[in-house]
Design brief:
There is one protein chain. The chain is of the alpha+beta class and about 425 residues long. The chain has two domains: about 170 residues, 3-Layer(aba) Sandwich (Creatine Amidinohydrolase, Chain A, domain 1); about 260 residues, Alpha-Beta Complex (Creatine Amidinohydrolase). About 35% of the residues lie in helices and about 20% in strands. α1 crosses α2, α8 packs across α9 and α10 runs antiparallel to α11. The chain is elongated, with a radius of gyration of 25 Å. The chain starts with a helix and ends with a helix. The mean pLDDT is about 95.
């Protein structure tokens, strides 16, 4: 994300904030991986959305109607630390580089924050988001309450910033959509690549490595979440990430992976035969899931809901399982009793953006919020027949999920991940090539 886009996000947030209020967002710190080594740093998504800044240990303040209005606390320049661990932007260069009004050293936040909050009536921050953020705010509020003789006045009200900020993040701008579309394109091309490479005898981690390699070579240095490569009945484990088993002839492999580009991530799932040819049983289950996914996507437009799409998906999935003899009974009764949850136990989709499970209110657990232009969501029905399921053994151990990333447009939708094939004939043709 460029700094100009982040500046526009700050202005949108300021416009939504109450008069005489201050918003505070605490960034991430580095996380130890082992002894004295750290994981590759990734900024807190809210902080990144508002700054585009990707250094650890920083705090953003936005003070509506006050000067300076935007302030960043960050690490100061340190010649020795920069030799060992990399360059820092520093306090002096931050305002011009990031387009903010002022910058302070993070080392001074305990003393400076109460002064900068003084006089505000409302403080917005992410209540309960992190121990550090809560402790920082608590300390500052205590200082204000105890500083009457020094001319400090306590804040009258504390509100949860996420109510406003996450609503902004849910509705993507044209610039954000361009970035997200690029992440989806890289992700789609990576999935296509591993379909072409997959062969019996390979290991799950080899396909994972190829996904990461292709994505990095095309500008996505990180994956947006832990890559799932589940061969055989590993596909029945929804968040399987061990990725250490051999891929066997005659089985399917389920890959759920998305590349992260400039902070935004794709999220694609494809399921395909390891040897390039679906068996009759695999084809039957796969086609049910594909029909359900296509029917759900076709419904998406402003005003419809994820629940409405999921209701249609349930009719197709349960009806298909009844036709195959995997379930017995009336489709409507099986749906009402939620008997399908042995085979389809997750939701139909989720918001997508800076986080793979992106922020934004669904309005209810069954997701009845009407869709609107600029929202991006996943559609990902699946069927998972556990290896010990009480069904005909020919169905046991087969897991199928198909997932695409959908942008809601003014009058319909756009599939951002349509570039990677999913029809049975197309998959077999691609793998044969």
């Amino acid at each position: 994300m460029d700094y100009a886009l982040a500046a526009s996000h700050r202005q949108q947030l300021l416009a939504q904030m109450p008069d005489n209020s201050v918003a505070l967002v605490y960034g991430h710190s580095e996380v130890t991986r082992s002894n004295d080594t750290e994981y590759r740093f990734r900024q807190d998504s809210d902080l990144f959305y508002l700054t585009g800044f990707n250094e650890p240990d920083c705090v953003l303040l936005l003070r509506k109607g006050q000067s300076p209005e935007s302030i960043l606390f960050l690490r100061p320049r340190d010649e020795l630390m920069e030799i060992w661990h990399g360059r820092r932007l520093g306090v002096e260069r931050a305002p011009a580089a990031l387009g903010i009004d002022a910058a302070y050293s993070i080392d001074d936040i305990a003393t400076e924050l109460p002064k900068l909050l003084n006089g505000a009536e409302v403080l917005l921050h992410r209540l309960g988001h992190s121990v550090r953020e809560d402790a920082l705010v608590s300390g500052a509020l205590t200082s204000l309450r105890g500083g009457l003789r020094q001319g400090l006045t306590p804040i009258a009200q504390v509100q949860d910033l996420r109510t406003v900020l996450h609503e902004l993040r849910l509705h993507k701008s044209a610039a954000e959509i361009d970035i997200l579309a690029k992440a989806c394109q890289i992700s789609a091309d990576a999935h296509t690549r591993v379909m072409q490479l997959c062969r019996p005898g390979m290991f799950e981690y080899q396909l994972e490595a190829e996904l990461k390699h292709f994505s990095a070579m095309n500008g996505a240095l990180e994956m947006g979440y832990g890559t799932i490569v589940g061969g055989g009945d590993n596909a029945c484990i929804l968040h399987y990430t061990e990725n250490d088993c051999e891929l066997k002839d005659g089985e399917l492999v389920l890959i759920d992976a998305g590349a992260e580009y400039h902070g935004y991530t794709g999220d694609i799932t494809r399921t395909f035969p390891i040897n390039g040819k679906f068996s009759a049983e695999q084809k039957a289950l796969y086609q049910i899931v594909l029909d359900a996914e296509k029917a759900a996507i076709a419904m998406l437009k402003p005003g419809t809901t994820i629940k409405q799409a999921n209701d249609r998906v349930l009719e197709i999935l349960v009806g298909g399982l009844v036709d195959l003899g995997i379930m017995q009974g009336e489709v409507s009764e099986l749906i009402a009793a939620e008997a399908y949850k042995k085979f389809y136990m997750h939701g139909l989709g989720h918001w997508l953006g800076l986080d793979v499970h992106d922020v934004g209110d669904y309005y209810s657990p069954d997701r009845t919020r009407p869709l609107a232009k600029g929202m991006v969501l996943t559609i990902e029905p699946g069927l998972y027949i556990a290896p010990d399921a009480e069904v005909d053994p020919k169905w046991q151990g087969i897991g199928v999920r198909i997932e695409d990333n959908i942008l809601i447009t003014a009058d319909g939708h756009l599939n951002l991940t349509a570039a990677v094939v999913k029809e049975i004939a197309d998959i077999e043709a691609l793998m044969a090539s």
